[in-house]
Amino acid sequence: MEEWGIGRKSGVKKKIYYHDTDCGRVVYYANYLKYFEEARTEYLAERGVSIKDLAEKGTYFVVAHQDVDYKAPAFYGDILEVSAKITSASTVKVEYEHEAKNQKGQIICVGRAILVCVDTQIKPKSIPEDIRQKLSP
Asked: Which residues are catalytic?
């Protein structure tokens, strides 16, 4: 699995706005899924993989499974560092680990996502070789 560069991490900074919060004044729990998606997108972009270009070629990555463990709340005005890293991969799927930390370094939540490579008919397909190469160290 070393060919996938497992363990290399990428992150995005996310400022929390009022619209990110719920009536309890904390970040709405489902928003972390969006933040994780943004981190995965940047992970790929930093390695030269464009999701838009993949879609134009009929290749998509879809979430097949998602786990999230919430450790502490985040609040309006916080700045979160949300990271993504590949922890395992096969010919058709990629598993990511995610972590969101606040500006004090406190872990807010952690997650795991399994994405499957599919074609335009949402049928599993092998991850294209050029993508595998871009994700290798």
From this structure: 22
